[in-house]
Write a structure and sequence with these properties.
Layout lengths: L1 H14 L26 E8 L2 E2 L21 E4 L13 E7 L2 E6 L9 E7 L1 H9 L5 E5 L4 E7 H25 L6 H19 L4 H19 L7 E6 L6 H13 L4 E8 L2 E2 L4 H5 L14 H11 L3 E7 L2 E3 L10 H4 L26 E2 L5 H18 L3 E5 L23 H11 L11 H27 L3 E4 L5 H8 L3 H6 L5 E2 L2 E2 L4 H13 L6 E2 L2 E2 L8 H13 L4 E4 L7 H9 L33
Length: about 625
């Protein structure tokens, strides 16, 4: 018994957070078969109360103002009735269930399988998911008691083992078929070991856990060696600077370079303040620099030292976000000095106080429609470009604050942009005050486009500035164009079609490779071929499995993106960097390999493998 428990603990440690794909199954329904747990071979079981199932009717009041209708510490079940995706944010955990089996662990906004459901949790519920769910776990919904019951069995171990071996095998075949220089010998050796372990796990039921754990460990090693290094692949990371002296900045730059990363997206203007002493901000009589960098100019050192080492620095610029500091507590806060610049919702359009966004960390936003706001931000950007000569500008928060989804009642009341300036300008053009316009009426589309065009106008003006100085302009966007238009007034398709940006750095807020694939493909299909795509991967920030990061790098390559950016440096610990440096981010001594899409066509003989017939 001690041996079984020990092996189980080892296996759970290796397996935790692992993702795998699943075969098709019957369409999800509410039949009794969905509620019949296993009666034999149970090694571990757990239960948790379900807060709501498909909370799209606005009945889950605790989650009404949060993405996906999932509130603090809540456990939510999403079925196909909810729509295509869960719509949740990056602060939770999710599991994809098909045929009552967890087939994949995700993080946020997961695609809901037509033949299954999603388990989603925040806070305490997220902790429960991390402790009790893994690939292969059996999951059952008891609707009478609104309880989720989960079980771990020997079958769970075998399922997880088979899935990851199939996945790695398929990944290796992709590179063999598309890369004439690919050397998969090391990866294949690990796959062979994993297959041998799996056969032993199948033949020896008493040792299933032990051999399954060994198989998954070898398959993970195979995956880490499977991805080759590509010299011309864009590799970047978002960085919030904390260093307050030159030596510490140099140490961080050296560390970033040691990770195989060549592009630093340095947070330069965030929460309404700059990291450098700004003459522009002084002219506007607002706080001229963040307090932690007083009497010190870190931006100049970051750029100078990065350039000495062959690294590029892009200015990460939080455009319309003014931070979550209450303006009333700082007389030099931009919204204390210019209270009319603050954005407001329809529900609070006449508020005498600044309005904070509950779903955006109680943060405050500037009004994109106000020309004074746009000039203020453009002057700040010009100061940065002229004085510091960065390699690019990365516009973040280039949008309105998030509203709840239109499928919830009260959608129009949570919309932003109902400032005095915007209302008067729109009313002069249309004869109607936006406060009197309801969602679903003919004028709503005009009011929405008015706000979308204000964001687009700022992007266009920034592009004129970056083109003048011949530097790269990228923008942080949210995938799913329709959703971005609906809840954030972000019309990034227009930016791309008019060449107002050089590239997108979309937020891929998931650990699930299939959701990542869907989101990246959505951007590709709605963008000009001239717009480069650098998917922003959040696996490290979401504390996902390190191999999920590899999966998303692989999917990005398959979709022919220009490279990837990781969020963020603070979370990029050795769990992730060691995996990347095994092969994908480790420069080779020999002549660098070019990406597959730059290689000449050549037929490659396909090698039959243990799982060939299954794919």
């Amino acid at each position: 018994m001690k041996k079984i428990i020990a092996n189980l603990l080892i296996f759970m440690f290796i397996l935790a957070g692992h993702s795998a794909s699943a075969a098709s199954a019957p369409v999800f329904d509410n039949s009794k078969a969905q509620n019949q747990p296993p009666v034999e071979g149970i090694l571990k079981q757990a239960s948790i109360k379900i807060n709501d199932i498909d909370p799209n009717a606005g009945l889950n009041l605790k989650g009404s103002f949060y993405p996906g209708g999932r509130g603090n510490n809540q456990l939510i079940i999403y079925t196909p009735k909810n729509g295509l995706r869960t719509g949740t944010n990056e602060f939770g955990a999710e599991a994809i269930v098909i045929n009552n089996t967890v087939v994949q662990l995700s993080g946020a906004d997961t695609i809901i399988p037509q033949n299954g459901f999603i388990i989603s949790g925040h806070g305490k519920a997220k902790t429960w998911i991390n402790q009790n769910l893994t690939v292969g776990t059996k999951a059952y919904i008891d609707k009478k008691t609104k309880t989720l019951n989960v079980y771990l069995t020997n079958e769970s171990f075998l399922y997880a083992t088979q899935e990851i071996i199939k996945e790695v095998d398929k990944m290796m075949r992709y590179y063999r078929d598309n890369d004439i220089y690919y050397n998969g010998k090391t990866s294949q050796n690990y796959v062979d070991k994993a297959i041998d372990n799996l056969k032993k796990a199948q033949k020896r039921p008493d040792d299933t856990q032990k051999y399954s754990a060994a198989a998954i460990a070898n398959a993970n090693k195979a995956m880490q060696h499977a991805l080759p290094y590509y010299k011309d692949e864009f590799k970047g990371v978002w960085v919030r600077p904390k260093e307050t002296n030159q030596d510490d900045i140099i140490k961080t730059i050296e560390k970033i370079r040691s990770y195989g990363i060549e592009n630093i997206f340095l947070e330069t203007y965030f929460q309404g303040k700059t990291i450098f002493p700004s003459a522009v901000l002084a002219r506007y009589n607002v706080q001229t620099q963040r307090n932690e960098f007083k009497n010190f100019d870190p931006l100049k050192i970051w750029i100078d030292e990065a350039h000495k080492r062959g690294l590029k620095v892009h200015i990460w610029f939080e455009t319309f976000y003014a931070g979550n500091e209450n303006p009333m507590n700082n007389p030099k806060n931009v919204l204390s000095v210019y209270p009319k610049w603050g954005n407001v919702t329809k529900a609070q359009y006449d508020s005498a106080m600044p309005v904070a966004s509950l779903s955006e960390h109680n943060g405050y936003f500037l009004d994109p429609a106000n020309p004074e706001v746009q000039q203020y931000l453009l002057s700040l950007l010009e100061e940065i470009i002229t004085n510091y000569h960065p390699d690019g500008i990365n516009l973040d928060y280039i949008r309105y604050p998030q509203a709840i989804s239109a499928k919830f009642s009260g959608y129009d009341l949570t919309n932003w942009g109902y400032t005095k300036y915007a209302r008067e300008e729109f009313k002069n053009a249309s004869g109607v005050d936006p406060v009197d316009i309801k969602y679903g009426t003919p004028l709503w589309d005009s009011w929405a486009k008015y706000r979308q065009d204000k964001i687009t106008s700022f992007v266009f003006k920034t592009k004129q500035l970056t083109s003048k100085h011949k530097i790269l302009l990228t923008a942080v966007i949210f995938p799913d164009r329709q959703k971005s238009l609906e809840v954030k007034m972000q019309d990034w398709k227009t930016w791309s079609q008019n060449n107002y940006v050089d590239g997108f750095t979309p937020l891929i807020l998931t650990c699930d490779r299939d959701t990542a694939d869907f989101l990246i493909d959505d951007i590709r299909s709605n963008s000009s071929s001239k717009t480069k795509i650098y998917p922003g991967l959040f696996v490290a920030f979401m504390n996902g499995n390190p191999d999920d990061l590899l999966r998303q790098v692989h999917q990005s390559r398959k979709l022919k993106t220009a490279g990837i950016i990781m969020f963020d440096y603070a979370h990029l610990n050795p769990r992730y960097t060691d995996v990347l440096l095994t092969s994908a981010f480790r420069p080779v001594k020999a002549k660098p390999i070019e990406p597959p899409n730059y290689l000449p066509d050549r037929k490659v003989k396909k090698k039959r493998s243990f799982f060939w017939k299954n794919n």
